[in-house]
Amino acid sequence: MRNSIQIKKTGSLNQYCLSVFLLALVCLGASGCSLYVMAGKMFFGDPLQTCEFSRTTKVDLSEEDKKVLVICSTPESIRSDYPSLNYDLLEQITYRLRRNDVNVMDTGKVATWLDDNGGVWNNVDELAENFDADYIIHVDIDEFDYREPNSPNLLRGKAFGTVSAYEVREIDGIKRALEVFASEYTSEYPSHLPVSIESESPKVFRKKYLDRIADQIGRFFYNYRTGADI
């Protein structure tokens, strides 16, 4: 009698396990690989996304011992309204690249050189000649503002420009900067509704927006987790 009860319990357990297994197969069939993806995230975190620069050039700046120069530029119309924008972006982008193991040249040397040259430079070859860099990253911001047009009490960041990278090579004894990567950059934050100055001061919002721009531009050049927020 006891053996008969044990057999019945074992049979019920086997049927239960079989039912769970079949249900899992049905879920997998219905959702494709989503369960595998969810399981992978649970154990390993979000997958690492290869940055656009590495996909284009096959070069990983975080793994190769390459010295990188970062420089930012804006037109006079922006510099007159935001005179510190170039240097603020330079510092923030440099910080993020270094945090992701990219060997970036000292921002102080770049700023000093720019000051000595009136804050302008003619071409990238000039930078290649004056700095001992393997790559030059040029962030050219054509448009920038963090105030909603015709609404002085509303804040919304908008920026547009081009992000380029150059490999420095010596050709006939002269250092030249050859473009190896270029991409347009467009930003709007927040994308749905602007922020009222009653809920956040313009100074705090501007700092937050510059951090966001630096994160987005930095991701052109270092790999990142797909689930990481910016």
Features:
44% helix, disordered N terminus, Rossmann fold, 2 domains, five-stranded mixed sheet, alpha+beta, 230 residues, two-stranded antiparallel ribbon
Would you give an account of this structure?
It is a single chain. This protein is an alpha+beta fold and 230 residues long. It folds into two domains: 42 residues; 178 residues, Rossmann fold (3-Layer(aba) Sandwich), CATH 3.40.50. Helix content is 44%, strand content 26%. The chain contains eight helices and seven strands; from the N terminus they run H-H-E-H-E-H-H-H-H-E-E-E-E-H-E. Strands 2, 3, 4, 5 and 6 form a five-stranded mixed beta sheet that branches. A two-stranded antiparallel ribbon has the order 1-7. A hairpin with a 6-residue loop joins strand 3 and strand 4. The radius of gyration is 26 Å and the shape is globular. The termini are far apart.
